[in-house]
Design a protein that fits this description.
60 residues, mainly alpha, 3 helices
């Protein structure tokens, strides 16, 4: 079978155009939200490692 010249480039251009468009319904995640999530998760595991979470849970 003979391959058509340029068909791969046209398909790639179509995919780039498809993925380049932003959806109005898409979630917008800012860099600040990523930083806050990373700091929060790190703090939770730090406290969990030092048994602070279990100490707080035993208070109730």
């Amino acid at each position: 079978m003979a391959k058509k010249d340029g068909s791969g480039i046209q398909q790639a251009a179509g995919l780039i155009r498809y993925f380049d468009e932003e959806s109005e319904d898409a979630w917008k995640i800012t860099p600040l939200q990523i930083y806050i999530a990373c700091i929060g998760i790190s703090a939770f595991f730090y406290l969990l490692n030092h048994n602070v979470i279990s100490w707080i849970a035993n208070m109730f």
